[in-house]
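Annotated sample (chain length 321).
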Amino acid sequence: MPRFPPTLQKLVFLFRFTIHFLTVDKCAKMLIQDNSADASLDLWSRHDVQTCTSWNAPIIWEGMFDPDLYDQTHKKKDSSVALTVFAVGRYLDAYLDSFLRSSERHFMSGLPVSYYVFTDTPEKVPHLELGPNRSLTVVKVEKLPRWQDISMMRMKTISEIIRKEIRHCCTHVFCFDVDQVFTGRFGSEALGDSVALLHSHSYHRPNNRFPYDRNPKSEAHMSAGDFYYHAAIFGGSWWNVKALTDSCYHSIMRDKENKVEARWHDESHLNKYFWLHKPSRVLSPEYCWDSRVNHGWDIKITRLLWAPKQYNTLRALSGNN
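Output written by the structure step:
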């Protein structure tokens, strides 16, 4: 993987170490704890990255946590997880099988998991031999004319399935894009009340270069923020995810009424939500990494990888231009 020049790497390291030193001591004393295992987080274990936010939420990196302790804690709490994923049009053919099979190997091992697959062609969902305490529900959805609308309207669909089913069977919800493959443990250390993910393309950028929506006419407008979050993964307790999806859906609909579309669609609205409602847990880019990024010297493990993108072909063939 290409890297930045050594001099620039040293400058970035010194800057990060200074930020790390200034924030970690305060954070260790006032850390937001989603469960008892969070008391064991070693915020000092990684001097090359930021391990805590300014509002004292942990940023989860490899080396900070004991995976066995987290698994035992969540088993004692009877934690259970719903995973939602949309596979509409040709996205089902291209990505769904590898996404589901890899999730069976790596996602929340040892915990009950309920998959919810939303698709316009239920008959094409691949058969999968699931592990113990795992189930798969297929929900038919309409294929909208544009992929942007599919992406944005998923907020309403997720909220509805939480209200109808998930709240009765699961403690937590994680929402994923389908064009990804699990490559390593994506475990119970990721569970929290409100969970956001640092975008692999933006986590090294200064704040003024984050790709927020800058249009003041949009409900997603932001002039400043904490981080840039990736909408390919978000999660939390079912009630927090419902609050997030409801809020984003209503903002999207207000934009539609005003004939405005946010720069990065539902992701822009998600970033606005997390700016106003700080997540209690932030996942590092390990949890959704793009191998084309050339500044990943601090990535010691990849837990989920972007699949090779075929957007031009898929969107054209699906009629989602």
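Annotation: The CA atoms of residues 207 and 227 lie 7 Å apart.
Annotation: The beta strands are 59-60, 81-86, 113-119, 134-140, 172-176, 180-182, 194-197, 233-237, 281-283, 304-306.
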